[in-house]
Amino acid sequence: MMNGCDCYGEKTLHYVSAAHGGWGIVRIAAQVPESHQLFVCPFACGRHGALGGEMNGIKDRISYLFITEADIVSGEFEELIVDGVNELFEALEKQPKVLFVFTACLDDLLGTDHEPILKRLGELYPDTHFRHCTMNPISLDTTLPPGITVQINMYSLLELAPERKKQVNLLGCNVPQKETDDIRTVLQQAGYELGVLSACRDYAEFEEMAKAELNLVISPVVLAAAKKMEKKLGIPWLRHLRSYRLDEIDEMYAELSKQLNTDLTEAAAEFRKKAEEKITETLAVIGDYPVAVDYQAVLRPFNLALALTEYGFKVGLVASNGIPAFEKESAKKLKEMVPDVVFTDPMHPQSVQYPHEGEEYLCIGFDCGYITKSKKLVELVEDEGLFGYSGVMELMNRMQDAFLTKADVNKMIEGAGLII
C-alpha cells in the first residue's frame, strides 16, 4: 500500500512528522506590509501560531485575544473583539495599515457574523483596513480552505486604480524573485515591471499592484483571489502553474507574449540555453544516483520528478499526500517512463514505521529526507523563490551542493521554522 497510489484515496489517520510544515496562513498573511494579526481563540489554538511566529521572526506582528468558555456562552462576542482591538491599538506603537482578525474552528460553530464587527471597527479606526480570516482545519477538504481564503482577504485590500501601468503581478510567490531571474529580466527588457507581494517594502508599494495589466497565477491557492481581482480591479489573469519542465516554461512565455502583445520569447531563449547547460553540468555530477522529491518542497512534485526523468536523472521516489488534479497528467507520464518509481504518502500512519529508512536518495525536501534519513538533502519549502528557467538553474545548483555535502536532516528541519 505504501508503494502505490491506493493509499491516497484511503480515509484514515494522518501521521504528522517533524518534517511536516511550511508556509502557513500566519506567515503568508504577514507578507502584507504594515499589517498586524489578532487571533481570537482559546489558549490551545494560539500555541501553534505563537511558536511559529517566534521561529520565523514575526512574533511582534501577532497578538492574541484568548477566549474562555464563559466568553463563548456570554453572547457578547462582538463586544469582546471590539474591546480587544481597542486594547491592542492602545498597546501598539504604531497603528497598522491592516489588521487581520483570525478566528479558530470554534467560531464556525458559533456562527458569528463578522461583517458588522468589521464595519464598526472601520468606523472607529478609519485609517486601518480590517479583514476577518479563518484558522479552521475543519475546512481543509472544502473548496475554500484557510490557505485560499487568506489569499482572497489579502488581495481584497487593493482598490480600483484610476490608471494602468506596464506591470505584471506574479501571484503565489512567497519569496521575491532575484533581480537577475529570467521573469524579471525578460519583462524589464520589454518595458514591464514585476509586481510581487513578498517584495513590497511598504503598504503604498503593495497598493501599486492594483495598477497592473496582468496577474500571472503560478499557484492554485491564489486563483480565487485572481478571479476576484479581475472582477473588482479589472486585471485579467493568466494561469500557468510553476513548472520545472523547460517546454512548459517555453509555453508560459509564449502565452505571456500573447497576453501582453509583445514578444518575450527571444529574450527568454537565452535563459533556456543557460538552464540546459546547468542541467547537463548537474547530471554529470550526480549521474544515476537515485533522486526523491516531496510535495512540501515543491507545489508539483510529480511535475518536477517528470522533468528530472526527462533530463536523464534517476527518480526513484515521490512523497506526496495524494495526487491533485493539476498533477495527474505528470504522475501518469512519470509512471509510464519509470514503472518502478515509488509513490508514497508521508502522512499515512504506516510512515511511522519508516519503511523507506536507509534507502539511498538525493532528497529534494524535508519529508522525503526525514522518511529515508538521507544524508543528501536539498533544503527547499514550497518552491520559495524558484520560478522559470532561473528556478531550474537554482535547483540544479542546490542539487549539486546537496549531493556533495553531508546533511544533518534533524538540524535542517529545526532551522527551517516549519511549525507554521
UniProtKB/TrEMBL annotation:
This is Oxidoreductase. Residues 27-402 form the Nitrogenase/oxidoreductase component domain. The lineage of its organism: Bacteria, Bacillati, Bacillota, Clostridia, Lachnospirales. InterPro entries: Nase/OxRdtase_comp1, NifE-like. PANTHER family: NITROGENASE IRON-MOLYBDENUM COFACTOR BIOSYNTHESIS PROTEIN NIFE. Signal peptide: none annotated.
